[in-house]
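Let's do one together. I've listed all components of the complex below, 520 residues spread over two lines.
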Amino acid sequence: MSSATILLVEDHPLNLALFRILLEHTGHEVLEATDLNQARDHLARGVPHLALLDINVPGGGGEVLLKEMRADPRFDGVPIVAVTAMAMSGDRERLLAVGFDGYVSKPVDTRGFAALVERFLVNGRNAPQP
Amino acid sequence: MNWPLRLLLVEDQEDDAALVLLELARCGYQVMHSRVDTRAQMAAALTSDTWDLVLSDYSMPSFSALEALAVLRGSGLDLPFIIVSGTIGEETAVESLRAGAHDFLVKDRLARLGTAVERELRAARDRAAQREEERRNGELELARENAERLSRFKSQFLANMSHELRTPLNAIIGFSEVLQIEAIAGPLAERQRQYVDHILESGRHLLRLINDVLDLSSVEAGRIELRREWMAPKSLIDGVGATVRPLAQKQGIVLTIRAATLPPLFADPVRIKQILYNLLSNAIKFTPRGGSVLLDASTDGAQLVVAVTDTGVGISAEELPRLFHEFERIIEPTGPRFEGTGLGLALTKRLVEEHGGTVTVVSTFGQGSTFTVSLPLPPPQPDTTMEALP
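Okay, and this is what the predicted structure of the assembly comes out as:
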């Protein structure tokens, strides 16, 4: 996809900067949020093409925002991907089971990260998991 | 018959006491006794000595069986308490049994004393044994709860630590990779490029260490669940071979994979891959340039045997026993330094054992090593296809 709008929820400032650099490098517009309220402000103004959610974020965590977005028909077609440092065995399965469309563990491999973003932008919520 | 009996006798009449003692001696008890007839004396006797039995008169000038029972209850001791009294009414007898007396005897019929004492001593022993068993069960339960709490605490601690280590590592590895993207970071001088490589290499090493530690502690806590499925070992072996081949080429090592047609294996493919990768990358790591590494997979029908042989540095006889221990890295002070977490072989061994297999090593210092993994094959099932098997 040429240029998409991506909601990026990440409370760690350096990781936020890293993901923004990678996403902007591939030509996308990034809506940054370091807590859930900032994310809700972005979502009130428009519908992103993709949401990348950290799980441990202030204000209730990525799973809370996932539930809110899934309850709102405006976001029906928006892929929501967990980008998280929660990477113990079982975390991936648990997060996919609660409804995330994709899962990436930190530290991310930047090439793999870019490829995953493109896959979800092109295929929508049904993008195949690697 | 000479059974020792420590008797506390609550009785004001010395003659009556003598009759009781005589009867007990006749029954074969060797009695050591103390006679008390006040609340204070009884309380003192219960504190200062150990008793098997209390025999008490019903009514005394300055004490009574009911008061004696109260003193006994207050002491917390569970001793058989038998009232030996002159004729009293049925009401009184019932009242004293309700108050905790175990039996009631009339002085004119002391012949019953022996059996009553024997029965109550046995009942008291049974009660004590039951209390002891309950106490032990309680302790076991407590120990089990403690172990569970500790295990939960350890898991939570590891999960937190993993999260806290991965978060900064994301920035370290990520920004190092970004530095290598010229379109983002601009051109790097050769020396800068080299330094970024060092940062990346160390970051990835740290990540492997974190993964290995967490894996190992999961195996130890019995929390690794093997996801067994039917798999073709040959294609899996070839896959791992392809993964490590670039590593071997980079180090100038000849890698040979020799896998005949092998029967299907019922195992966790991710873990089997991890086992083979660990063995092959170890062999390559510890083999000097120009050497060779051979993986030979075969079967004897009962098990799948994978042997990885290298022409590397080898392991001396005194170091062999420590080889599979956590964090044991065999380092020759004068030899070359090898990167590693010290966890790979410990983890490999655990994963093989989780599959019911064994891993052994034969090595000659300076000449090379052979690591052999044996994994049990399921018994042959006639007339079944792979899909039809469980």
